Amino acid sequence: MNTLTDLANTIEERAKADPESSWTAKLLAKGPEKCAEKFGEEAIEAIIEAVKDNREGLISESADVLFHLLVMLQSRNVALDEVLNELARRQGTSGIAEKASRPKS
Ligand SMILES: N=c1c2ncn([C@@H]3O[C@H](COP(=O)(O)OP(=O)(O)OP(=O)(O)O)[C@@H](O)[C@H]3O)c2ncn1[C@@H]1O[C@H](COP(=O)(O)O)[C@@H](O)[C@H]1O
């Protein structure tokens, strides 16, 4: 099992934990909208580090982004595996070819 899968499992367990004892439980108890807001904040912090070309900051903020993405998914009962399956489905399809195949709007 990889680190991301381990973390997703921990987050799923924390959904039943006491919000006083777990950051994850506390955030999940605030609801999906708060989880989404927190993910957005962390994404912006990662963007700032990328623009500043701060390598250490980008690594640290990216870890926050992944953690908060998993919490947001948990808040809407979406399993990490469902996202990984979607990525696997896309493997081998060029992004340029996929975009060209979309119906014209
Ligand atoms: N990976 C993480 C992780 N990354 C970030 N964070 C927390 O996310 C919070 C967000 O940090 P911020 O500074 O943005 O938040 P803040 O300023 O305190 O919050 P605001 O009041 O500003 O919204 C901090 O409290 C971090 O400690 C994490 N908390 C937990 N985990 C993992 O989740 C596991 C379970 O943690 P608990 O749920 O706390 O038991 C841990 O063992 C870790 O593996």
Automatic annotation (TrEMBL):
Involved pathway(s): Amino-acid biosynthesis; L-histidine biosynthesis; L-histidine from 5-phospho-alpha-D-ribose 1-diphosphate: step 2/9
GO MF, any single term: ATP binding
PANTHER family per the UniProt record, alphabetical: HISTIDINE BIOSYNTHESIS BIFUNCTIONAL PROTEIN (PTHR42945), HISTIDINE BIOSYNTHESIS BIFUNCTIONAL PROTEIN HISIE (PTHR42945:SF9)
Protein's GO biological process: L-histidine biosynthetic process
Catalytic activity, as annotated: 1-(5-phospho-beta-D-ribosyl)-ATP + H2O = 1-(5-phospho-beta-D-ribosyl)-5'-AMP + diphosphate + H(+)
GO cellular component terms, semicolon-separated: cytoplasm
UniProt keyword list: Amino-acid biosynthesis, ATP-binding, Cytoplasm, Histidine biosynthesis, Hydrolase, Nucleotide-binding
UniProt xrefs under Pfam families: PRA-PH
Keyword field contains Amino-acid biosynthesis: yes
Localization per record: Cytoplasm
Record's protein name: Phosphoribosyl-ATP pyrophosphatase
EC number: 3.6.1.31
Gene3D superfamilies: MazG-like
Family membership noted in the UniProt record: Belongs to the PRA-PH family.
